[in-house]
Amino acid sequence: MPIYWLNDDNCQFPPVEHASGEGILAVGGDLSAERLLTAYSLGIFPWFNEGDPITWWSPDPRMVLFPSELKVSKSMKPYFNQGKYDISVDKDFAGVMRNCQKPRGTYGGTWITEDMVAAYCRLHELGYAHSVEVWQGDDMVGGLYGVALGKCFFGESMFTRLSNASKFGFIYMVKMIEALGFWLVDCQQETSHLQSLGARPIKRADFTRIMERNRNQTTLQGHWGDLSNALKPMVMPFIGAETPFLSIKKSNSFI
């Protein structure tokens, strides 16, 4: 398959079926809010290294998590029962991105460029990008961020400074958006960490059908901080409980 160069004059993308075997669909364009929102609505996301052209991806298969399939291990439940960490939403979006931007382990670089930080902070200002912060006292020890469109949350990155802090934030986020009627979390790439939490790969064709349906849904746009504070007393006890959250079992038959 050819790799497409995007036209700077419009935000159109080629069909996702034209992506390469590794999932590269196109290069070029910009990180404007309009282009990013168009990309996510089609199931496309940017991922590139500093100094490289913007690269747009649509991998096959696609790693997703349906909220009703979230796995909360027995070892994680005490974190919620005992209130080991505090949690907030949309309190420090830029701070979460900066922490995700820091090199990890033996990796010397990061794919979160300064242009990416500016672009996603702009999406946050517009009410489309959201962050979850995990705190121990006054210290942010974990977090994640992503983009919400319709009934789908597109996860971008997470970080942790203390044991299970990012997992704590991820579990809370999934349960919060489940309470809001979201269909899925897009995890983009397959990892053993996400798989342990219940994520699984689906065919790109199935993911594309979900995106088509999602484009007809209303986006919960705006700052989610107050919304999270209202839902937290309902969500947190169920995470640490043995019973399923609100005894809800949703069907994923639409894929």
What this model shows, in words?
This protein has 255 residues and is an alpha+beta fold. It folds into 2 domains: 4-59, Alpha-Beta Plaits; 63-247, 3-Layer(aba) Sandwich (Aminopeptidase), CATH 3.40.630.70. 33% of the residues lie in helices and 22% in strands. The chain is built from 8 helices and 11 strands. The chain has helices at residues 33-42, 77-81, 93-101, 114-125, 165-179, 192-196, 204-214, 225-240; strands at residues 4-6, 24-28, 45-46, 55-57, 62-65, 86-89, 129-136, 139-149, 152-160, 184-188, 200-202. The protein has a 7-stranded mixed sheet, with helices on both faces. It has a 4-stranded mixed sheet with strand order 1-2-4-3, with helices on one face. A hairpin with a 2-residue loop joins β7 and β8 (139-149). α5 crosses α8 (225-240). The longest helix is centred in the C-terminal third of the chain and has 16 residues, at 225-240. It is globular and about 55 Å long. 40% of the residues are buried. Residues 245-251 have low confidence and may be disordered.
